[in-house]
Specification:
single chain, 140 residues, globular, mainly alpha
Length: 140
């Protein structure tokens, strides 16, 4: 069985119209990568340091199986936010790394990364809080 991409998982969660449905979908697909997606999208302490506009990038070739690639690259999110690692990267280098990441992952996952930065995901914050109470304890 092929691994579902993180974009597919988020899509499944977003299709759920109730909080209970989203909580179930979140927990059914629980992974460190999914937790990081929510953290880097909704954590009020984290701010993205890449420009608001979408950078020019060439999406990965759709014929190449890249669906699992974002799972491998998810730890790089720290370089694009106000984390200690992110603050140590010069802005030009940070933008280059972000474009490289967008070009490396599956096209749908690249779109997910851009949606994360714009906070455009349609996952209910109360559902995330119920699914991950420890991670979200400091969220308002």
């Amino acid at each position: 069985m092929a691994t579902k991409s993180l974009a597919q998982i988020i899509g499944e969660i977003e299709k759920q119209k109730t909080k209970a449905g989203q909580v179930k979908a979140i927990l059914d697909n629980d992974s460190n990568a999914l937790r990081m997606i929510f953290e880097f999208t909704y954590d009020p302490m984290l701010q993205w340091l890449v420009p608001d506009s979408d950078p020019p990038y060439r999406p990965a070739n759709d014929t190449i199986d890249q669906e699992g690639r974002l799972y491998q690259e998810i730890d790089k999110l720290v370089y694009f936010t106000n984390t200690p690692d992110g603050l140590n990267v010069k802005s030009m280098r940070r933008e280059q790394l972000f474009i490289q990441l967008l070009e490396t992952v599956a096209p749908d996952d690249a779109k997910l990364l851009l949606r994360m930065r714009r906070k455009e995901m349609k996952v209910m914050v109360p559902a995330i809080k119920e699914a991950y109470p420890k991670m979200t304890a400091h969220w308002k």
